[in-house]
Inverse folding.
């Protein structure tokens, strides 16, 4: 008998679809839709109000929402608040200068006392001389002139609500060959000795919020690191008397925090949950089905009163309405 011959099977594979049957067009289409979405958002932002623009800019500058978008609850651009603070600091500066000039012992040191109004507040710098003026040479111990001047400053600063920041600075000359005590230690100790004397003369214990020692890292005369004027103590009267609420861009965008001055920011809560009464003694507590209260009927939406503008949809609402399948 002859063996049966097996049939020959030929398998032909067709290549991938080309032309419009391929998937390359999907990538191009997705890029086109993304570009159109970005264009619509830009066009909408160009026609939005300044508050919305600031809110969107604040979100993209700080996506985590750790920085404050608004610095004050007052309407306006903040110029009036800044001017008022500067005027107060200017009065304090003029009063201190007059009191220093009135004392003959301190009048000779007026060139070594600098008072400057900065965006942070009033900065008072006690600049050391070549042989020491306010501190003994190479020591954190105050001289007689330093004690008198700080007592005079304390008499005025204790009447202010502003907090104080005290900084100590040295020149670049090494304090000693011994690494156990350096310019870092000396600058911090001098700032702390100034703090102790201020508090002994009436400055509140919670008024001094920070004491810093910078050694020679913030030189006054950068061209000459060993200049004696680099040795100084600074007292900063800070501009922090206003209590400002924390309102972030993210909270404004998602609607959890209304903008100051809006109707929702001042409207009181209208409903309160009623406490459930306890079951009578001797009766078992109702089961899960019995405990579930019947939901009250949804209240009808309040009609806006005459003259009150309707609330505009937020940015997230407009973005959601653009998505495919969104209800219009």
């Amino acid at each position: 008998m002859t063996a049966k011959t097996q049939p020959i099977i030929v398998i032909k594979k067709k290549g991938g679809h080309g032309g419009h049957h391929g998937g390359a067009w999907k990538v191009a289409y997705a890029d086109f839709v993304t570009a159109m979405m970005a264009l619509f958002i830009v066009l909408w932002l160009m026609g939005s109000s300044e508050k919305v623009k600031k809110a969107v800019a604040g979100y993209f500058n700080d996506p985590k929402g750790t920085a404050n978008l608004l610095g004050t609850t007052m309407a306006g651009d903040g110029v009036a608040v800044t001017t008022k603070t500067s005027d107060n600091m200017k009065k304090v500066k003029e009063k201190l200068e007059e009191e220093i000039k009135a004392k003959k012992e301190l009048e000779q040191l007026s060139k070594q006392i600098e008072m400057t109004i900065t965006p942070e507040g009033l900065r008072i710098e006690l600049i050391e001389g070549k042989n020491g003026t306010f501190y003994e040479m190479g020591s954190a111990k105050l001289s007689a002139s330093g004690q008198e001047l700080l007592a005079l400053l304390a008499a005025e600063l204790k009447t202010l609500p502003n907090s104080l920041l005290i900084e100590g600075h040295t020149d670049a000359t090494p304090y000693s060959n011994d690494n156990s005590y350096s310019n870092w230690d000396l600058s911090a100790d001098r700032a702390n000795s100034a703090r102790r004397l201020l508090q002994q003369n009436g400055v509140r214990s919670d008024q001094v919020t920070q004491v810093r020692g910078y050694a020679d890292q913030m030189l006054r005369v950068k061209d000459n690191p060993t200049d004696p004027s680099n040795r100084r103590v600074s007292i900063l009267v800070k501009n922090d008397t206003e209590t400002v609420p924390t309102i972030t861009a993210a909270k404004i965008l998602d609607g959890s925090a209304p903008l100051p001055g809006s109707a929702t920011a001042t409207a009181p809560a209208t409903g309160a949950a009623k406490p459930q009464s306890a079951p009578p003694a001797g009766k078992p507590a109702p089961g899960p089905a019995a405990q579930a209260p019947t939901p009250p009927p949804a209240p009808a939406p309040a009609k806006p009163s005459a003259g009150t503008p309707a609330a505009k949809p937020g940015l997230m609402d407009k973005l959601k309405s653009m998505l495919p399948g969104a209800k219009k």
Observations:
- Residues 23-71+245-259 form one domain.
